[in-house]
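Quiz preparation item.
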């Protein structure tokens, strides 16, 4: 069983989880979603296939979103209005194109919850207060998922 507590409620600033398959990665996202508050920005980092989208699918389920969650790689931003949830994928976006997306307005709205894959592409435009989650391959299906709070 994976036990999640809200990252900013922890005395330590980092927490590491190991998942052994995609179902566990998705469950980690579902469990973590229960700790999120309006205005939270979750930044996801990791190589292709490291579990970012799978985790986000669980996150959306945990928020009560019934729609199928697929990566917004070509759309850049997918919106799920009933829960004010935004799923952003910046894999194909250069930093100089970000102004056109309206992403800063989404991030500044305190009623939104935003998950950003490939958040490193925001560079200095990342919000100061955020939850960073780093995904890395350990073995074929095993992932190391590190949560840290940035304030």
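Solution:
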């Amino acid at each position: 069983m994976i036990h999640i507590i809200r990252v900013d409620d922890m005395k330590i600033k980092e927490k590491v989880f190991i998942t052994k398959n995609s179902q566990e990665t998705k469950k980690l996202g579902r469990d973590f979603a229960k700790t999120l508050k309006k205005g939270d920005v979750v930044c996801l980092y990791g190589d292709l296939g490291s579990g970012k989208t799978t985790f986000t699918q669980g996150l959306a389920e945990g928020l009560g979103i019934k729609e199928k969650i697929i990566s917004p790689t070509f759309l850049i931003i997918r919106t799920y209005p009933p829960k004010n949830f935004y799923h952003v994928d910046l894999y194909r976006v250069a930093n100089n194109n970000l102004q056109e997306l309206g992403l800063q307005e989404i991030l500044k709205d305190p009623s939104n919850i935003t998950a950003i894959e490939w958040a490193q592409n925001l560079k200095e435009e990342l919000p100061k207060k955020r939850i960073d989650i780093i995904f890395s391959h350990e073995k074929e299906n095993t992932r190391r998922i590190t949560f840290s709070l940035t304030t």
